[in-house]
Specification:
This is Cytochrome c4. By secondary structure, the protein is mainly α. Helix content is 42%, strand content 0%.
Length: 129
């Protein structure tokens, strides 16, 4: 772990809080598509992998991954590498398990290919401008 001074954390938080965020006009829960017809990342985002204890991301993070304040952060439009790194940190027990204590189990239920796919999907969905 790296030691980061409080003032550096405040500067970073202020920077990210200042970024304008847009949300889509029409939010989708993806009941309009058959999961088998979705690319891998979209399928995990909207259908999950229930046999591996992975719920749909949008079941907690809101339609399109817009976030549910204050407990579930926005996934839509996040940087792909950031999302990959966070999921891999949970998968390797390097990060606290999250609000419901579920993110470690969820991340461990995803392969590295699936992590890349779902991170790419959400990164491609707009959001921060």
């Amino acid at each position: 772990m790296h030691n980061v001074a409080d003032e550096e954390l405040i500067k970073a938080a202020d920077f990210y809080a200042s970024i304008a965020v847009s949300t889509p006009e029409t939010l989708q829960w993806r009941g309009d598509k058959w999961p088998a017809d979705m690319p891998l990342g979209e399928r995990i985002a909207y259908s999950g992998k229930w046999n591996d204890k992975v719920p749909a991301c949008v079941s907690c993070h809101g339609p399109n991954g817009v976030g549910v304040v204050p407990s579930f952060p926005m996934l839509m439009g996040q940087n792909k590498d950031y999302l990959v790194n966070q999921l891999k940190a949970w998968k390797s027990d390097q990060r606290p398990p999250g609000v419901l204590g579920s993110m470690v189990t969820i991340a461990k239920g995803l392969t590295d290919e699936e992590i890349e796919a779902v991170a790419s999907y959400f990164a491609s969905q707009g959001g921060a401008q």
